[in-house]
Design goal:
Length: about 210
């Protein structure tokens, strides 16, 4: 949700989305050193959130910027997907932004041995569509936002692509939804079925 809707805000939002896409393009392209790709992503994301007019950070929080857990190479996965059939779409109320359809379409296969559970992949209904994977874990409410974090949101460009036809899910790139930074924003949160029993100490964390 964008709390402002003037022409200048709409142009700034388009620029914000171009920059987010570019940040993920760079991360996907850097296959020789994944840790360095992540460090570049962290630096670019932090700079964007500190400086851009469309940053969800409150003005008083921009000097502090974003915080992240240290890089954990073991928390990067290329996972196969098991299609889900017959699941009803969930309709989410986004206030002034209307409603969003969230349709469970697949379940990851192979995360459970390392993370204690597999996760559901969703398709976002509405203009543009897209894939969406939010999750909760045992860090929520103290080290990370209580409503969970996002791994994949292809509408916004947050996508690390595939590897040998398997979906790349790197928890070092997990990030907070905009509503974690400012209550003016309304975001779809991770459903309970996407709760991991372990503490995922990777990705974006709270600043306090």
């Amino acid at each position: 949700m964008t709390p402002r809707n003037s022409l200048s805000d709409a142009i700034a939002l388009a620029d914000w989305r171009r920059q987010v896409w570019a940040i993920y393009d760079a991360a996907r392209a850097r296959t020789d050193d994944r840790a360095e790709a992540w460090r570049s992503w962290v630096a670019a994301r932090d700079r964007l959130f500190r400086q851009h007019a469309q940053s969800p950070l409150k003005p008083g929080d921009r000097g502090e910027g974003l915080r992240f857990f240290p890089y954990q190479s073991a928390l990067r996965f290329a996972t196969e997907l098991e299609p889900l059939v017959g699941r009803s779409a969930e309709i989410i109320d986004l206030g002034d932004d209307g409603h969003l359809s969230l349709q469970a379409i697949a379940r990851t296969r192979g995360l459970a041995p390392a993370l204690g559970a597999d996760l559901t992949l969703y398709a976002l209904g509405g203009y543009g569509g897209g894939l969406f994977l939010p999750f909760r874990d045992a860090t929520n409410g103290y080290a990370t936002y209580g409503g969970g974090r996002y791994l994949l949101d292809t509408i916004k460009g947050a996508d690390l692509g595939t590897e040998d036809s398997r979906l790349v899910l790197d928890f070092n790139f997990a990030y907070h939804p905009s509503c974690a930074h400012d209550e003016r924003w309304v975001c779809p949160l991770a459903p309970e079925e996407n709760t991991l029993p372990l503490a995922i100490v990777a990705g974006e964390r709270l600043t306090s």
